[in-house]
Write a structure and sequence with these properties.
- This protein has about 280 residues and is of the alpha+beta class.
- It has seven helices and eleven strands.
- The termini are far apart.
- Strand 1 and strand 2 form a beta hairpin.
- Strands 3, 4, 7, 8, 9, 10 and 11 form a seven-stranded antiparallel sheet that branches. A two-stranded antiparallel ribbon has the order 1-2. A two-stranded antiparallel sheet has the order 5-6.
- The chain folds into two domains: about 55 residues, no CATH class; about 180 residues, Pnp Oxidase, Chain A (Roll).
- The longest helix is centred in the N-terminal third of the chain and has 16 residues.
- About 20% of the residues are buried.
Length: about 280
């Protein structure tokens, strides 16, 4: 009986010191404050077990960085042979910048929308930061000079970069290169949709779900009013063959990031694991 009382006493003391003022305790490392000295208590939970348990939850599981797609919402209507040939120098045979056939072959629904852009091979999400400075105090001597925030970094200095895989009909040179040239001629100004050189780009990052259940996007990036800025240099050699990848940075006006926590994912996955298909849509039968 005395042993049980001792355990209860220790537990009570541990709980009483969680969030204490002098030396806060935790359930995994409880302590009792005696004369400003922390006396260790008996752990109520295990650091290791608690960590591993949380890793089994949706919000704390390590995601897969390779599971993502990018969808280029639409391509400019003016990205065509007639417009490019009116802007660039071409010979009389009009073969230069004749991209209409490549456009039809490369930007159709099967290659751009079913699993995102099929030519995508990587993406660099831009950073976002704000600069810091200090408020100077003349002859401050021992006084600390106050810290202030100055300017948020410009989106123009942190473009969204997409990496495309080279194929026989080059998506980079037949679509992205002409698009960057078109943007250079037209500028980054607002135009009506039929003349706009901008588009919206969606990047969806997926994670594991359950066996035989499709992946769920864990994070969705939306970049608005995008236009390509450049295409990488082509290095041709007679040495070993290798897959070519070319980076294309995009300028954009603004961006957003979304999660999926409005969906009760933990409950849905738990029901699927037990063989039940939850009803999550009024259209589902």
């Amino acid at each position: 009986m005395s042993g049980i009382l001792n355990v209860l006493g220790n537990a009570t003391a541990a709980l009483a010191t969680v969030g204490g003022i002098n030396q806060p305790g935790t359930l995994a490392a409880p302590s009792t404050i005696v004369s400003n000295i922390a006396i260790p208590g008996i752990p109520l939970i295990s650091f290791r077990d608690y960590f591993l348990t949380t890793m089994e939850s949706w919000v704390a599981t390590i995601p897969l960085r390779t599971q993502f797609i990018a969808i280029i919402q639409e391509f400019p209507a003016t990205l065509n042979s007639a417009v490019l040939q009116s802007l660039e120098n071409v010979q009389g045979d009009k073969k230069g910048w004749n991209i209409d056939n490549a456009r039809t072959a490369l930007i159709n629904y099967p290659l751009q929308n079913i699993v995102g852009c099929i030519f995508l091979d990587g993406a660099d999400i831009p950073d976002d930061s704000v600069a810091a400075a200090f408020a100077p105090i003349e002859n401050n001597r021992g006084f600390n000079q106050g810290s202030i925030l100055t300017n948020r970094n410009a989106f123009a200095s942190s473009p969204l970069t997409l990496r495309f895989r080279e194929t026989n009909t080059s998506f980079t040179d037949m679509i992205m290169r002409p698009w960057a040239i078109l943007a250079a001629h037209k500028g980054f100004v607002h135009r009506k949709k039929s003349e706009s050189i901008k588009t919206n780009i969606t990047i969806m990052q997926y994670s594991r779900t359950y066996q035989n259940v499709s992946q769920i996007p864990r994070k969705v990036w939306q970049f608005y009013d995008c236009a390509p800025l450049s295409v990488g240099t082509r290095n041709l050699t007679y040495t070993d063959e290798a897959m070519d990848h070319y980076d294309v940075p995009f300028l954009y006006n603004y961006y957003t990031v979304e999660d999926n926590l409005y969906i009760p994912l933990p409950d849905i996955l738990k029901q699927i694991g037990s063989g039940k298909i939850p009803r999550i849509s009024p259209l589902q039968r």
